[in-house]
Amino acid sequence: MPNVPSASHACATVFVIDDDEAVRDSLRLLFELAGLEVRDFASGSDLLDEADRLCSGCLVIDVHMPGMDGIELLERLRRDGVALPALLITGRCDPTLLGRAMSAGARTLVEKPFAREAILGPIRAALAEQADAGGAAHMN
How many CB atoms lie within 10 A of CB 61? Predict the structure, then answer.
């Protein structure tokens, strides 16, 4: 398993976007215990308000949220030039959803409930790739 970027890449952050506070809290705890910096948002709109200030890192976006769903959020971020790697999480997956997620630019789709490494592995890989590339994954 790749290592989490070193302190020299301290800006590498996992950005969690989920409307469920309990899920955000659980993911924050999981990621912080794994040594990752975390910022969380209750909606896609909340994240978009700060999109111009996102540094290197990885997005973890819930698919099923009221208002703007996770795929719509990812499509909007991509249109706005935000190229951070994104993992989508969902409680229910089907082939159509998987296809939409990949077309929107998701790195992977992780189905809940998931094992710790099912989500930490792709995050570590994304952060390691950014560290190897010099951390410049914010804008296209």
Answer: 26
Report the C-alpha gap between 87 and 69 in whole angstroms: 14
- Average pLDDT for 118-131: 93
Question: Do the Cβ atoms of 88 and 80 come closer than 8 Å?
Answer: no
Token representation of residue 88: 């989508």
- pTM, entire model: 0.86
The number of C-alpha atoms within 13 Å of 39 and in the hemisphere containing its C-beta is 16
- Domains contained in the chain, CATH given: 7-132 (3.40.50.2300)
Are residues 63 and 88 in contact, defined by beta-carbon separation less than 8 angstroms?
yes
pLDDT value at position 135? 54
Task: List the single range of 14-18, 64-68, 89-93 with lowest mean pLDDT.
Answer: 89-93
Name the amino acid, one letter, at 69.
D
Which parts of 59-136 fold into alpha helices (H)?
70-79, 95-104, 116-132
